[in-house]
Design goal:
Number of strands of chain A: 8
Radius of gyration of chain A: 18 Å
Largest interface: A-B, 30 and 38 residues
Strand order of the largest sheet of chain B: 1-4-6-5-7-8-9-10
Strand content of chain B: 5-15%
Low-confidence stretches of chain A: 209-235
Structural class of chain A: alpha/beta
Radius of gyration of chain B: 20 Å
Distance between the termini of chain A: 29 Å
Number of helices of chain A: 8
Structural class of chain B: alpha/beta
Mean pLDDT of chain A: 86
Number of helices of chain B: 11
Order of helices and strands of chain B: EEEEEEHEHEHHHHHHHEHEH
Oligomer: heterodimer
Number of strands of chain B: 10
Helix content of chain A: 25-40%
Mean pLDDT of chain B: 94
Largest sheet of chain B: 8 strands, mixed
Strand order of the largest sheet of chain A: 3-2-1-4-5-8-6-7
């Protein structure tokens, strides 16, 4: 049996059984398959690469070939319980827009971001004077897909600006089990290599009119699971 | 041939199902076809639980011979790449049905059929039909074959539009739906090209107001020109360039109007061979049905509403990157509407330079995608 990726293990823990899940950038569908198997979720993937889409289809997953930067706009409001964006927010052209879209189409978003404030980054930049190449961000500057890197503090600032609530946060470091953290805690911006957030809106999303008159908006039947949620207590 | 007993008699079967007068087809136009013939082919056997039936819907100029050998042309069936042993739609596993559309000219009732009111071919007395009419006739056939639920309804181009219509009209009869290289409505450009084709046919003096058969002639020139114009829309600029470029038929120019260029000769051949197998009036009627197709308009202008009852259907929508007849954007509109309706939908754009016709050409990515989708859907249906 292969070792479960630590972010997958944490996502698996966070997701409610039977939920409707959108995985943005689902690659070959590994996470969706896991969630379907373990949590019986009603999953949908969004993936840009043809190979990833084919792999998902072969696994029996529902997947739409598309671009997280452009195609989230076309999903209806509150169509999902969770929208997952794993380690790709920093590769988006407009992370701010993507984040707010995730929380329009889903009630909660699960987003993980590499923390550029981690001590390895700081030390590498300080000592070498070059763009850090670490185990979390191994590519040289000229080939990295990461165009919008941020620190833990930058990310929580953006959440505040978008009026998002952090329902849970876990620090992930290469291979170790996830560690539940307070993202504004004094040392977390130094010691968290990657942070995984469970986010929700503080206010109701404004339904976005469809871009094309052809589509319109229709009322989606709401499963019972979606009735006003009691905020769950974190141990 | 009687329909009863034709199922599961052998691996490949077919015939013409004749619905007697009184059980004819109600049409969207308000007219009725009193007697209705539906010509069809089947491949494979219906299983004991009747859960493995697949309906394949054909495109504008194709017919019920999806696999095997087409008796008219002597060539392999139009979807021999997909339907057959070891292929994504394997008759060992599925009971595959393909029927000639109403309005067609390969055995189903169409403008060349005998008008029971006059005893002569219908010609222009044939009522205008729609995609929904074609689907209604298919639903009658499926019911007559003893099939309650289709494992899948599949089609490319006009076949894809029939798939969408199935999802809108009979979602409860579908387990899955595969729509390839289609659109939710005909665009102005689509209608424009069809109008060129129709005008070419009607400008042929041998068309005789549609009554050419009675006069013992055929508007072959007009139909050939219609086919030539349409055929260009099925290819891509890149594919034409790759196949023909500016290559000449023979050394030097003729300094006249012979087919100097290979592409001219190719199109002339396409036109000439088409008239041998297709009826000009059928071409008028089926292109009209396509032009009238607008699934959103049937649902208060909101495409998502067309799929409101189809939440239990597993959709797969596929497009081709170089298809400019029904471009990827049209398929994306379908997918967005499916998403808006809360349907389970997959979508992939297949990278190819072969244009619209890629859906029945050598396109390994298409084969692999279909194979994956059918295999996993079959598992979900308990057919594995």
């Amino acid at each position: 049996m292969t070792v479960l990726r630590e972010d997958f293990a944490e996502i698996l823990r966070l997701v409610r059984p039977g939920a409707r899940v959108l995985d943005v950038g689902c690659e070959d569908g590994e996470l969706l398959e896991l969630l379907s198997r373990e949590k019986r979720v009603d999953g949908q993937g969004l993936e840009i690469s043809p190979a990833g889409v084919s792999a998902c289809l072969a696994k029996g997953l529902a997947v739409v070939q598309g671009d997280g930067d452009r195609d989230l706009d076309h999903f209806p409001t509150r169509a999902f319980d969770y929208a997952i964006l794993s380690k790709t927010l920093q590769q988006m052209r407009e992370p701010r827009h993507v984040l707010s879209e995730l929380l329009r189409i889903a009630d909660q978003a699960i987003v993980s971001v590499p923390n550029f404030g981690h001590w390895r980054m700081r030390l590498s930049l300080m000592s070498r004077g070059r763009m850090p190449e670490t185990r979390a961000l191994p590519d040289p500057w000229w080939s990295t897909p990461n165009i919008h890197l941020c620190t833990l503090r930058d990310f929580t600032d953006l959440c505040r600006e978008l009026d998002l609530r952090v329902d849970a946060c876990a620090a992930l470091s290469g291979g170790k089990p996830a560690r539940s953290i307070k993202p504004d805690g004094p040392l977390e911006n130094w010691r968290s290599e990657t942070a995984l957030f469970l986010l929700s809106r503080r206010t109701e999303p404004r339904p976005q009119a469809m871009a094309r008159d052809l589509l319109g908006e229709i009322d989606l039947p709401k499963p019972a699971a979606l009735a006003p949620k009691s905020r769950r207590r974190r141990r | 041939m009687d329909a009863a007993g034709t199922t599961a008699a052998s691996e490949t079967d077919g015939g013409t199902l004749r619905f007697p007068a009184g059980q004819g087809l109600r049409l969207d136009s308000g007219a009725r076809l009193e007697a209705l013939d539906v010509a069809y082919q089947t491949y494979g056997r219906l299983n004991a639980t009747r859960t493995n039936a697949v309906l394949v819907c054909h495109a504008l100029t194709m017919d019920q011979h999806a696999a095997g050998t087409n008796p008219t042309t002597g060539k392999p069936g139009w979807w021999s790449r997909v339907v057959g042993p070891g292929l994504p739609l394997d008759p060992e596993r599925y009971f595959i049905v393909c029927a000639n559309v109403v309005g067609g000219c390969m055995g189903s009732t169409g403008p060349a059929s005998t008008n029971p009111a006059t005893g002569a071919p219908y010609g222009l007395a044939f009522p205008v039909i729609t995609i929904a009419d074609m689907v209604r006739a298919q639903a009658m056939l499926i019911a007559a074959l003893g099939i309650e639920t289709l494992f899948a309804v599949v089609g490319g181009s006009m076949g894809g539009m029939q798939v969408l219509q199935w999802a809108a009209d009979y979602p409860e009869k579908l387990f899955s739906a595969v729509c390839i290289g289609a659109a939710p409505r005909h665009s102005a450009q689509n209608i424009a090209f069809h109008e060129v084709g129709r005008q070419a046919i009607m400008a042929d003096p041998d068309w005789r107001g549609g009554a050419y058969e009675v006069a013992g002639v055929r508007p072959e020139k007009g139909l050939a020109v219609a086919r030539m114009a349409a055929h260009i829309t099925y290819l891509s600029e890149a594919a034409l360039q790759r196949k023909f470029g500016r290559e000449l038929q023979r050394d030097g120019l003729s300094w006249g109007f012979d087919a100097d260029f290979q592409v001219e000769s190719y199109l002339r051949h396409q036109g000439a061979s088409f008239v041998d197998r297709f009826d000009a009036n059928s071409y008028l009627y089926i292109t009209r049905a396509l032009d009238y197709f607008d699934l959103a308009a049937q649902h208060e202008g909101v495409l998502a509403k067309a799929f409101a009852r189809a939440r239990g259907v597993r959709f797969c929508v596929l497009s081709f990157s170089s298809d400019w007849l029904y471009p990827t954007a049209e398929s994306r509109d379908i997918v967005r509407a499916l998403n808006a309706a809360g349907c389970r939908a997959s979508f992939a754009e297949i990278e190819t330079d072969k244009g619209h016709d890629a859906f029945f050409l050598d396109e390994p990515q298409l084969d692999a995608t279909l194979r994956g989708f059918f295999a996993s859907t079959a598992q979900a249906r308990g057919l594995a």
